[in-house]
Amino acid sequence: MESWKALNLSILLGIASLASRPCTLLASPLFPAVRASSSMNGRYLVIVEQTFKGTSSMAVGRVPHNTYLVLRSEPFTNSRDRLQSTASFWSDFGWQISPTGNASEGIFLPLITNDGLTVVLVRAEGPMKFGNQDVMLIYRKQSNTARLVRSVPLSDIWTHEEIEANAVLGDSGATPMWYTGGSFEFSPDDRLLLYHSRWNDTIAVNLADGLTTIKRK
After folding, report:
1. FRET partner for 110 with CA separation of 20 to 30 A, picked from 5, 57, 103, 195?
2. Which of 139-171 are b and which e, b meaning 16 or more Cβ less than 10 Å from the residue's Cβ?
């Protein structure tokens, strides 16, 4: 009996010792709140506007709905209107993107072509092993509206073997983005989006139809 009491006392003292030790919690930094992106030539700008359901955007678990407004650098065609200044002025270019469904939520980084006619929304998310994960949404200016050309799935960018080896079952917040280690650029004629992957493969995305062509290293 005495030995049983001694054992219980030893366990309690061990628990108390662990509880009294300082604990360091590690957390990944929050993703940057990106609000704008410009074309390579600096003539066009995509503004990210967020709205929330309800009255507060600070409530825990609130998911924003994003709208992407395209602006163009104002050249002031009429010289009498021009303000001589080093400042940059932007005007409405006549179209915006209002994604619907699953595309209306989550975090996307907008890329815009030098002609201002195409916007590619790149999903900022780790690669998922299961499900049809759309990693890019291609939108094209059509009059004053946006036409969804295609949603590009991860399986069009990565091979089955790359997904099996690198994708995860759930994003813990520390998982690298699917595009990490790669780079993006538009072709000079704005017809293609070229993605150079972490494995040195080049994926050409045709902006007219969203279809991909892969050139392996």
Report:
1. 57
2. bbbeeeebebbbbbebebbbeeebbeebbeeee
Residue with the two structure tokens 């604990």: 23
Q: Which residue has the higher pLDDT, 182 or 22?
A: 182
Burial category of 90 from C-beta neighbours within 10 Å (exposed 0-12, middle 13-18, buried 19 and up): middle
Over residues 34-38, mean pLDDT = 94
Q: Quick one: pLDDT at residue 55?
A: 52
Residue 93 belongs to a domain: yes
Task: Give phi and psi for 135, each to the nearest 5.
Answer: -105, -15
Cβ of 30: how many Cβ atoms within 10 Å? 7
* Backbone φ, ψ for residue 150 (5° rounding): -170, 150
Domain holding 157, by residue range, is 31-52+65-75+87-178
d(CA 191, CA 175): 32
User: Does residue 36 lie within any of the structural domains?
Assistant: yes
Question: How many structural domains compose the chain?
Answer: 1
Burial of 124 (0-12, 13-18, 19+ CB in 10 A): middle
Spatial separation of the C-alpha atoms in residues 59 and 64, rounded to whole Å: 11
Q: What is the pLDDT of residue 75?
A: 82
User: Per the domain annotation, does 137 fall within a domain?
Assistant: yes
Judged against a pLDDT cut of 70, whether residue 56 lies above it is answered with no
Which pLDDT value is given to residue 79? 73
Beta bridge partners of residue 90, listed in sequence order = 73
